[in-house]
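Hi W.,

Here's what went into the run:
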Amino acid sequence: MTEAVPLAPPRRLPVWWMILPAVVLLGGFLILPYASIVVMSFREASTSAVYGDGFTIGHYTEVITDPFVWGIVWRTVRTAAIVTLVTLLLGYPVAYHLARTRSRWASLLYICVISPLLVGLVVRTFAWLIILSNSGMANSALKAAGLIDRPILFLNTPLGVTIALIHVFLPFVILPLLGNLQAINPEVAMAGRSLGASRMRTFFKVTLPLSMPGIQAGAILVFVLSMSAYVTPAMLGGTKGRTMAVLVVQYLVDNFRWPAGAALAIFMAVLTVSIIVLYLRLTARAMRRLP
Amino acid sequence: MTGARKTLWDHVFTLLVALIYIFLIAPILLVVLLSFSGGEFLALPMEGVSLRWFEALFSNSRFYEAAVHSFRLALVSALVNGVIGTLAAIYVIRFAPAHLTNPLRVLMSAPLMVPEILTAIALLFFFFEVGVGNRWSMAIQIGHILVTFPYVFLNVASALFNFDRSQEEAARSLGANGWLTFRRVTLPAIKPGVITGCLFAFVISFDIFNISLLLKSVGKNTLPLELFDYLRYNFDPTAAAVATVSIALTFVAVLIVDATVGLRSLRF
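Here's what came out:
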């Protein structure tokens, strides 16, 4: 060791090769395929092949003018809106509690929140199939409590789908909120208290406005997931609880109408994005009015 | 809390939160409980306790084959993403030109931001158009790799982000070359992120449904698909036993993560 170790910055090898496989994966198998949905939606239908030779905008006009489709669209949007609202109402107290708790059970509680995320959708929906059936626990409990005489029909209705989706997507609202609430300095709220504000007032004037980013992130995530949910409505919804994603899969798999199914899928995506943009505009305006 | 005494409102709040925790976990516990049922029905109270439904499950070759198929898809997804997701994270956090960092991050987490059902449809059309279709399970495997990629990327990226670079500089100033520094300093530091990401990729791949539904080869079901099909015509505790096995697998993964790196380091 006679020579001094050079401290100059190391030679820059062409390091972009490191990102190459990922770019190939995402470019080749995500971006290109999404483009192929758009292309497919303009292809002509054919009875002898998957699609015909020409191109048409006919599938879009067909989808948009079909009252049957609109019935399902309305049900999907309504279900997604209810699920988003209820998951926010249920998720906020949990995130708030988990962000502040010093209980030694905190780890266990955290597992309660993330485990539904890690257990497959089919399994979770299956649980609700058991709970919500006519002779299931929900109906037995309500009957035992004397609240109902005859069972409530949960299955094959939008009601059952809504309840199960709330359970399925609740963690997606808790986790962003948890991150957000943990990042809020507790001294800010204490300052409000020490200035004489009640706890209620401190919460509504300080903590809640500061947690708005978490609320927005969770709400958008759950709304997108609910709008596009397939497994839960397919297993619990029957024909009366059918949502857009179920209809799209029906077009593709059962009826083998790929171009029309593609148009419906694009319609679903555009509708979802439009509603979110509208929502962001409205809430931005409302938030500007806040003190 | 400033040590204030508990008010009625505190107790109401605690009760409310406790109920929501129960709401979150109870359905899963219920399925596990019912898989040990001695009776014929998925109902409470159970008629005794037995392992007969697990016996029924393990003698069912369709479930067995589906489980093997799912396991292989999940393993390949975890391994492939363990390599390309880690490399991508290192590039984006360390080497990417500043103006590319954010676009690349968005691109790398894109599979999480678009609905899985749309990705499944996109891949269905794409593989048909390029003439591969659903042969050799290639479409379904690529679908699984694609959807689980962000879990590895995000976990490794966050480990790298929290890692103190001066340790690398120290190694280099002591004469270690780039590769040695990477292997002896950087890699051990980001290992928890890589392990978490891979386990996560495995678990998610084992569970995903929409991708498998649209991209599966004929006659080759994954475990969630097989369970879904089974429930169309059957409604007995065998299904609960299937669910319990897959829940157990998930919890093993969760316990490994918790023991090695701690659950709170997970990135979704």
